[in-house]
Amino acid sequence: IMRRIHLKGDVLCTLLLLVLLCLVLYAQHDLQLIWGPWPTVAKATSSQGIRQIPSRTPATQAPQAPCQPHPSPPASTPQGSPSTGKAMVTQPPFDFQRYLRNKDCRDFKLLINQPAKCSGGQAGTLFLLIAVKSVVADFEKRQVVRRTWGRELTFQNGAQVRTIFLLGIPQNRTQLPLWEQLLAYESQAFQDILLWDFEDTFFNLTLKETHFLKWVDCCCSDVKFIFKGDADVYVNVENILEMLWGQEPGRDLFVGDIIVHARPIRRRSSKYFIPEIVYGQGIYPSYAGGGGFVMSGFTARRLHQACQEVELFPIDDVFLGMCLLRIGLQPVRHEGFRTFGIVRPSAAPHLQVFDPCFYRELMVVHSLTVPQIWLMWNLLHDPHFNDSLLDL
Length: 392
Ligand SMILES: *[C@@H]1O[C@H](CO)[C@@H](O)[C@H](O)[C@H]1NC(C)=O
Ligand SMILES: *[C@@H]1O[C@H](CO)[C@@H](O)[C@H](O)[C@H]1NC(C)=O
Ligand SMILES: *[C@@H]1O[C@H](CO)[C@@H](O)[C@H](O)[C@H]1NC(C)=O
Hints:
Largest sheet: 9 strands, mixed
Mean pLDDT: 78
Number of helices: 11
Helix content: 25-40%
Bound molecules: 2-acetamido-2-deoxy-beta-D-glucopyranose
């Protein structure tokens, strides 16, 4: 009898622990939904100054942080949605109403083109096009990419790697009065600038996506593979090439750090807040997060078609996920596309955590600063690199 009681006690204990575990997992899941899929996008675009998007559109589940009445509630709140008339006033709210009104306006002129980028004239073929999202002010980031992982290469078999930067009109033109001259000269010097006639804001990154795909379709349709990513990443191009050598460019391929079952964030204090009037469903389609992804030229052309038919959505990663869903292509997750960067120098003054062997395995490491990218590339490419140098 004692033993049975003992057993019962054990079972009870186990059950209790299980319940606790479930609670903890549930809580973590929630946290992850808030913080998880987005750590780097936030960093990548922080220079553009949009950190929070409180909105005047209806709140959903958000716990009410201190709110104040908005000075001028929107005139055109859609019928049937609960209007609180309140918004957080820490930052100017993102105007979803305006976004919805304007989203049919989605064709902008290409102001600077690189017509020779893909038809270089040589006998070689463009094997990999590296397309990097940038903003005009980030000249240093473009420079470090040009000098490190974004270097253009031609292999003995004629295969070429070419790099291009994707830009819009700077949002604050008074801050950078010489921007037009800078771009004119930069594009002449490096021949790697594409500039479109839309404002380069975080929420216009979707336009950058659609216009880039359109450019590939019109002006770079023979490209075999494309890497598209941010400028604050380290990309191990050798590893990407190795992955691609055996692949068939005429087939679908879409590889990255794929995020599945992410839920729209309904907290309006979040940078990624999306009200239900903009996206009503509970779950986003699978999409590539993080610093970049790889696709075949074939997939890019199919995505170009599909994206024309998908309504604009303010988060570009998710928007591309919607286009992928439309063509019925399941993106492939690859371990090499990590969602973190190296430990900050302050946390590791001697960079002792930098283990080149570890980074040799990766394809994309993101949220890096310019010196980190430069250092990483040099450490990984210096044949005389000596670990002991790091233990200064
Ligand atoms: C643009 O930049 C200038 C100069 O840095 C600054 O004074 C101004 O407040 C900025 N404007 C906006 C809208 O951010
Ligand atoms: C996107 O760019 C267009 C054209 O410059 C501009 O009118 C619009 O306000 C921008 N949208 C966002 C959300 O920044
Ligand atoms: C690398 O380290 C070894 C000892 O571990 C040392 O003998 C050698 O000089 C170092 N090479 C360089 C380039 O620092």
